[in-house]
Description:
Order of helices and strands of chain B: EEEHEEHEHHHEHEHEE
Strand content of chain B: 25-35%
Radius of gyration of chain B: 17 Å
Oligomer: heterodimer
Structural class of chain B: alpha/beta
Strand content of chain A: 5-15%
Distance between the termini of chain B: 26 Å
Shape of chain B: globular
Strand order of the largest sheet of chain A: 2-3-1-4
Number of strands of chain A: 5
Largest interface: A-B, 20 and 29 residues
Shape of chain A: rod-shaped
Largest sheet of chain B: 6 strands, mixed
Amino acid sequence: MFALKLALRPWRLQPLSQILSFATLGVLFLLAGFFASLATALPELRKGLEGDQIASVFLDPASEPASLDTVRDQIRLSLGSSAVAVEYIDADAFLNAVQQNQPDLAKEVAALGNEKDWVTPRHFSLRGPIGEKVVERLRTIPGVESVSFSARRFQPIVENLSAIAWLSRVLFSAITLAMLAVLILLGRLNSGIFAEAEGIVSQMGGSPWQARFPARLNPILLSSGAGLAAGLCFMKLSPWFATKMVTLSPFFSGLGTTAPLVSAPLLLGLGLAVGLVAFFLSPRSERAVR
Amino acid sequence: MIQLQSLSKGYSERKRVLDHISLDMKKGDFLYVLGGTGAGKSTLLRLLATEEETFSGRLNLFGYDLERANGSTLQAIRRSIGYVPQNVRLIPDFTVFENVALGVSLAGSRVARADVRSKIYELLDRLQLMNLRDTLASRLSGGEAQRVAIARALARSPELLIADEPTGAQDFQNTWNVMDLLHRANLSGTTIVLATHDREIVRKLRKRCAILSHGKIMIEEALCSL
């Protein structure tokens, strides 16, 4: 109990510096939480984009409509267990799709009557995680004339996301080190306050550990308190943050759905961890206690 | 309990604050350390309280040679000592009660946990501090702070009590309250070393005394005849 009360001495004797340090740490924890959430969410987002490929399997115009099911089965076999959506696009479906962007062309083709089946390409549209090897297998299916594949269609975006995730990790590490530096410097600032009590405790028979413990407990309390406050703040701000990210790019939709649930305990944990490191790295007070 | 053999202490090569002092004290002794300003009384008491650790000569406390004592021995020695320094050394943002209780908690198992509160209250009452028990030490007057330091030292039930001018800032009544408590502690077996300027105390409560001058013991009497 006395250790806790002694650890909180700077709050009584130098409240302004403690409040400023708490606020600084809180903001740094908030930033750390922001970058940590980006660093953890972006790889998932990248994975989703990498898995969102489109392949069009064009059928030989000479093939019988009856062989459609056989080709579909072959396509399924080639895809294996991948979660790829397979949809057959006949002439009418194709024209519907064309009508949205080029209504005149769609009207012209529709005016051809039964001949439109010869003009429009019959094909299967595949969407999902499709690899180059699968595309090669699709090309060898009997009745398939050609396969067009949107290989790496999100590649530039995926690379950007990778860079942002990497930068987020670097910034997270830098901020964590900055927090540690703040705590150690604060420990140095407070060493004068603790030296007096350390001397008294030591003089009355306290062990060096008992004498130094309050000075070292202080950064843990400060850091975990700031971590918890930042975590709660982050939970509150997370939906707003997710909305802002979506306005930046629709690819960011999905960010911040799980972050609010884990951010508070995570930031509290980070606070405890940073405080513990500061605990062991705290400078000794001016008076060496034997 | 205390053995000093040719104990010297100097802050510079030329001037020695204590100059080859030798002294023996047994358990239950009461010693006045007398002398003028700068005679070396406070330095001697600080050495006995292990507040200062550099000296030449030999200093034995409780049978341990202080020069050879390791950290844990030093702690054990300090736990057995109640020390009232001249500058009182209270924690200013702790209350009177907390300052005394901190001292007791660091004395280890010397004081039964169940008795701590009642013992502290009794001492505070005797020293007219009961109404100040929840007051911060920073708000106390010099005399009050001095009495808190005395309560803190006595509450630890020490084997050795070292007090540096404990009545220097007290009025007549409180001076004799303090002396009464020290006398009672001495009767119950506590060894006491008391530095004072107050000849009235020495005359009325006659005990052994050592008179220091320029760092040397000039006179040592079994029953002070001032």
